[in-house]
Amino acid sequence: MTKKQAARNRPKFVVIGGGTGLPVILKSLKKQNADITAIVTVADDGGSSGVIRNYVNVVPPGDIRNVIVALSELPKINLDIFQYRFKSDDSFLAGHAIGNLIIAALSEMKSGIFSAVQELSEMMKVDGHIYPASNEPLVLHAEFTDGTQLAGESEITAAHKTIKRVWVEPTSWNAGQKPHAVQEAIDAILDADEIVLGPGSLFTSILPNLMISNIGDAVLKTKAEVVYICNIMTQKGETDHFTDSDHVAVLNRHLGQNFVDTVLVNTAKVPDNYMDYNRYDEYSTQVRSNFKGLRAQNCRVVSDNFLCLRDHGAFHDGDRVAQELFNVAGNPKACD
């Protein structure tokens, strides 16, 4: 078999999301030789990304930077330099990652984040495709069950209210424009074998992508299997007390129909007193399972021990998750 034939035979995964969970899955899919496209949220307003966004008219680069590193084939030393974050006593550059500054510079040079990421992907020897969910920075909006509304990811999560719905709008300097994804991202969704959502913050990492109308429409139209990797822990200010079924119900409600085909659910218990809730202060409790609720939404459930315990935190075991994603790709729900 030639290299071109091998490439054609690789299953096509489109992974949609943001945050720290996304690179873990991408690294493991890459190790198993998947054909990967990552569609990454552009609605982050915190940390170094938020500061850069406030001073420079560019999409916040943090999630994109981490995805580039996850799919890069450069030596570790190159990636360590790209990821290096200046110390807090470096007042001018305090807290900024070098990669964020490079992405911001390229965005200005290339007149947009999409072209910048494609250029940088070549420079960083990325195995796969990385598409920002939008070529323009977006602001996340939320309506809570008490009727109030807030704008901005950090403001929404800090409110610690029950979220009813979220949506995205352009920033003030792009007001009036309808958010949309580049055609390359839409084509990838429609041509995929499997769409992977998560793991990541439900309201602030996954849904901001799906609320871009042409992405949401493409996910509904695609013939690919749509797989949701349910979070292991609930998140304060977002999914307090949620079961796995509640997560899926929110996704389905936002797109107006039951579109999630398969859900990956962790069955291993996080040991009592293991979590360091001071260090991982965004987490609340372990997500409980409601298989009956998942079945009622026409979901196939793949349950297993996907838990990775390290540094007194609970994470997904990327290799185990990737293996199940490959299993699902070889046995789509429609063929059960």
From TrEMBL:
InterPro entries per record: CofD (IPR002882), CofD-like_dom_sf (IPR038136), Gluconeogen_factor (IPR010119)
Annotated localization: Cytoplasm
Matching SUPFAM superfamilies: CofD-like (SSF142338)
Transmembrane segments annotated in the record for this chain: none
GO biological process: regulation of cell shape
An example Gene Ontology molecular-function term: LPPG:FO 2-phospho-L-lactate transferase activity
Gene3D superfamilies: CofD-like domains (3.40.50.10680)
Record-level GO cellular component terms: cytoplasm
Keywords: Cytoplasm
Keyword Cytoplasm: yes
Keyword Disulfide bond among record annotations: no
Pfam family membership, one: CofD
NCBIfam families: CofD_related
UniProt function note: Required for morphogenesis under gluconeogenic growth conditions.
Family: Belongs to the gluconeogenesis factor family.
Name assigned to this protein: Putative gluconeogenesis factor
